[in-house]
Amino acid sequence: MNFNIAIIGVGNLGRRHLESLVRLKYRSNIYVIDPNQQSLEASKIHYDSALNEHESIHLVRYSTFINDLPKDLDFVIVATNSNVRENVIEELISKVKIKYFILEKFLFPEMKSYNNIQTLIEKNNVKCWVNCGRRTYQLYQEIKRIVENSRRIRIQVRGSNWGLGCNSIHFLDLIAFLTNENNFELQNSQLDKEIINSKRPGFIEFTGSIIGNTLNNRVQFEFSSFNYGSMPLKIMIDSELARIWIKESTGETIFSIRENQWVNRDKEYKIPKQSEMTHSIIEQIISYEECNLPTFQESSHLHKLLLQTFLNHLNENCNDEVNECLIT
Q1: Which of 61, 59, 57 is nearest to 32 (CA)?
Q2: Which residues 6+ apart lie within 8 Å of 70 measured at CB?
Q3: What are 157's strand-pairing partners?
Q4: How would you write the chain as a 3-class SS string?
Q5: Which of 34, 46, 168, 290 is most buried, most CB within 10 Å of its CB?
Q6: 198-231 tens-digit pLDDT
Q7: Which domains, ranges and CATH numbers included, belong to the chain?
Q8: Long-range contacts of 224-230, Cβ-Cβ distance < 8 Å, separation of 24 or more
Q9: CB 82 within 8 A of CB 107
């Protein structure tokens, strides 16, 4: 049996998904769709380069048109920009029978899109996950076993210019995963007033800090992206059971655990790239009809909390009312 898999949007991240599918152990027909011919050509180069290390068992087709997709797809990975993702999903569901979606973050820039897509995927019986992949890392699965039963947890994520708007959802999702909590309050009062341009034209970014906590005050956290310097992203997790320091760029982690008398222990983890992950997620879904990524419903709740925080900040610092936040 051959699986039908589509990747919609092959910018940098979409290409990484495609590279990973070289390793997929199930024979598949892979459909790569992007309106930009140059992006398609670049993705073909990346895929062919990955073939140097792995034997190909897949048939890959490239097109600029969604209409070139078959009528039935097992998996669709939507890696478009956030501002067109809702329309792309609507078009796909109207034209193709889809079994599973994997959506890139940041999901949508407007609040109304979340309920619309939730209704649409439920109506069409599509199972859907969002690619907040830190839940799948060995590092964080081990940390969860250590800290999830803590009475109080404090988490800091700090670094220079790491994309607070674009990437905070990864860390809010990580906190939800580590603590089994999802009722959060977020504050925008410590975000910098200046809204900066993203590296991607037409999109924006934020610097400063988001401060948050759970409604029961069990978990407190801070996400800080400094608009100066070159501090690498560092994460600190502190509870009565453990203190853990993580430098994701290298995988270096220091554990100080109560049951080990708080003696520091260094360990280095491999932080997987997207090109090393997508095939495993799809294989997991094929085997169990589930995977370690958050469901659309779980992630939608967290996305909306962050989106409202950013919209509040925009409306406090802009002359006109703002209903969308164009982050990627």
Answers
A1: 61
A2: 4, 29, 31, 96
A3: 223, 235
A4: CCEEEEEECCCHHHHHHHHHHCCCCCCEEEEEECCCHHHHHHHHHHHHHHCCCCCCCCEEEEECCHHHCCCEEEEEEECCCHHHHHHHHHHHHHHCEEEEEEECCCCCCECHHHHHHHHHHHHCCCEEEECCHHHHCHHHHHHHHHHCCCCCEEEEEEEECCCHHHHHHHHHHHHHHHHCCCCEEEECCCECCCCEECCCCCCEECCEEEEEEECCCCEEEEEEEECCCCCCCEEEEEECCEEEEEECCCCEEEEEEHHHCCCEEEEECCCCCHHHCHHHHHHHHHHHCCCCCCEHHHHHHHHHHHHHHHHHHHHHHCCCCCCECCCC
A5: 168
A6: 989 999 999 999 999 999 999 999 999 999 999 9
A7: 3-131+276-294 (3.40.50.720), 138-271+306-314 (3.30.360.10)
A8: 224/156, 224/157, 224/158, 224/159, 224/164, 225/158, 225/159, 225/160, 225/161, 225/162, 225/163, 225/164, 226/158, 226/159, 226/160, 226/161, 227/160, 227/161, 227/192, 227/194, 227/196, 228/160, 229/160, 230/160
A9: yes
In the block, residue with structure tokens 């897509």 = 117
| CA proximity to 187, closest of 157, 218, 208 | 208
Q: Which pair of structure tokens corresponds to residue 47?
A: 């895929």
Global pTM value? 0.97
- Measure the CA–CA gap between 318 and 328, rounded to whole angstroms: 20
User: Cα angle at 274 between 85 and 61, to 5 degrees?
Assistant: 65
Residue-wise pLDDT tens digits, 255-279: 999 999 999 999 999 999 999 999 9
> Distance between CA atoms of 93 and 319, rounded to whole angstroms?
38
